[in-house]
Amino acid sequence: MLKTVGFVRTSFILPCAPGPGSCASFRPRAVVPPSSLASLFTSSPHGFHRHMSSEEEFDSGPADRLKGFEKPTVWQEFTPLAAQVKAVNLGQGFPDWPTPSFCKSAAINAIESNLNQYCRSGGLPALTSALAHHYSPLFERELNAEKEVTVSVGVSEGLFAAIHSLVNPGDEVILIEPAFDIYAAQIQMAGGTCVHVPLRPPSSSISFSPSSSTSWHLDWGELSAAFSPRTRLLLLNTPQNPTGKVFTREELEKISSLVQAHPRALVLSDEVYENITFDEHQHTRLATLPGMWERTLTLSSAGKTFSVTGWKIGWLIGPERLIGGVMCCNQWVQFSVATPLQAAVAEMLTKAKEPYEGFPSYYAWLKEEYSRKRSLLIDALTTAGLKPFVPEGGFFIVADTSNITVPSSYLWETTPASPSPMSRDWAFCRFMTLEAGVAAIPPSAFYKEGHKKLAENHARFAFCKADESILEAKTRFGRWKKEGEREREDDGGDGKA
User: What is residue 77's three-state secondary structure?
Assistant: First the structure.
């Protein structure tokens, strides 16, 4: 199949992959700037002829900083797979219920008020002021809206800007595993080196009782040994994805002591689940500990709190010298975040403190709603014979799957995104998606190669879903368990490989 692609006043004939008008799999060998076109052609009485060039002249990359990223991600496997087989998708962490009406109204009001043009790169003043007002009491200091607060395209881009403003090639960044997969990728892009320290999982004997803050725990000797003169950052996530761990003040004090013992060490604290904690567990901000304001950039966003993950409105809070680096980077990266959505979030921060749905505030309603959905999912997982580790925060549950036999055929599979050989957790999640009709995410995607075995008996499920979705998952689990038990026993797999 051929497709003509216009390029300045010349057309190239480019080969395309089979498909209805699609060039989706075609990768051009190079993008040639218009000023270089002349060198590709010579004239003759019969017109212009294009030179044929060697492979060496057309290096299409990728750059070294992207090497290793060509492989499909866990999201690119399980989200399409769930859609293909019409599984209940409890894998990816985005809400599938309507965004609160006051949030949608705020966005509509901003657009109709003609707040639709570029704004200040550091953030719309209305939003940075609202953030400073909201967070000043939480950080126990008066925040400067212009110098200690900045806005990003979600936390993902905020992390990118922060890492690139602080990490030089050869610098080390400590990641506490399981760690969201974008962390390591962004560190590599900046030329940094990841130093991985895993949380040790709870005992498999823990089943349905609420987990404590020590259920997932650090080996403090291991964390201490991870620091070196090259340590530039420690990347903390609390409440944590995927474990649901809320780091206690005592744990944060230990982390603080290790950081402050190393002159170059700073912390990026990803706190996007700050408003979703349960029971007696309280979110403590690392930056409020003695000596840590000067060393910490705190990140959060509107996406998880207000169920607007597609808006991509995030922010960073910290001392002027650290925020200044992020603002400098973002001047050349995103330049300006969506103005009407920033204005909407500024309004939402005020509205969220007002009574909502019979609760004293939207935040109080949010905690209760997620607590209720957490109970629904725990019930669904126990129906399947899984053993959930009840989270202290966030909206994910990691379940112990060790008492479920995974058929050998799934363990012998390979997919473009999967580890090779297939890890047990990955095989289990494919098994659940295809045979039970419920999709989950294999947590080994959040570990480095040498630590993936720590996740072999785990799966991550999301409860940021409509009640109907979670209840349907329970129904499917029950049907699968009842109808499939005999077949699974006859398959011959022990599921322990």
Answer: helix
- Which one-letter amino acid corresponds to residue 300? S
User: How many Å apart are CA 109 and CA 347, to the nearest integer?
Assistant: 10
Whether the upstream peptide bond of residue 242 has omega within 30° of 0, thus cis, is yes
Q: Torsions phi, psi of 274, nearest 5?
A: -55, -30
Q: Residues 417-423: contacts with CB within 8 Å, 24+ apart?
A: 417/71, 417/72, 417/73, 417/74, 417/76, 417/77, 418/77, 419/444, 419/452, 423/452, 423/453, 423/455, 423/456
Q: Rounded to whole angstroms, how far apart are CA atoms 59 and 439?
A: 39
Closest-CA residue to 15 (of 4, 176, 409, 46)? 4
Q: Collapsing DSSP states into helix, strand and coil, what is residue 13?
A: strand
- Rounded CA-CA distance 400/150 in Å is 40
Per the CB < 8 A criterion, the answer to whether 276 and 304 are in contact is yes
- CA proximity to 181, closest of 448, 393, 395, 391: 448
Q: What angle do CA 113, 119, 120 make, to 5 degrees?
A: 145
Least confident piece of the model among 173-177, 199-203, 321-325, 426-430: 199-203
| Per-position b or e across 418-455, b if 16+ CB within 10 A of its CB | bbeebbbbbbbbbbbbebbbbbbbbbbbbbeeeebebb
Kindly state the average pLDDT of the residues 214-221: 88
Cα separation, 121 vs 131, whole angstroms: 16
Q: What is the DSSP string of 90-143?
A: -SS----SPPPHHHHHHHHHHHHTT--S---TT--HHHHHHHHHHHHHHHTS--
Please state, in angstroms and rounded to a whole number, the distance separating the CA atoms of residues 254 and 257.
5
Token pair of 404 as six digits: 């479920």
The number of residues making up the chain comes to 497
Average pLDDT (444-473) is 95
| pLDDT tens, position by position, 262-303 | 999 999 999 999 999 999 899 999 999 999 999 999 999 999
Q: How far apart are CA 321 and CA 328, in angstroms?
A: 11
d(CA 323, CA 336): 16
Of the candidates 58, 59, 63, 41, the one whose C-alpha atom is nearest the C-alpha of residue 50 is 41
Please give the span between the terminal C-alpha atoms of the chain, in angstroms, as a whole number.
Answer: 44
Average pLDDT, integer, range 201-228: 74
pLDDT per residue as tens digits for the range 132-185: 999 999 999 999 999 999 999 999 999 999 999 999 999 999 999 999 999 999
Instruction: Write out the H or E segment, with its range, that includes residue 154.
Output: helix 154-166
Task: DSSP letter for 217, please.
Answer: B
* Residues with Cβ within 8 Å of residue 314, at least 6 apart in sequence: 151, 152, 153, 154, 155, 156, 157, 158, 272, 299, 300, 301, 302, 303
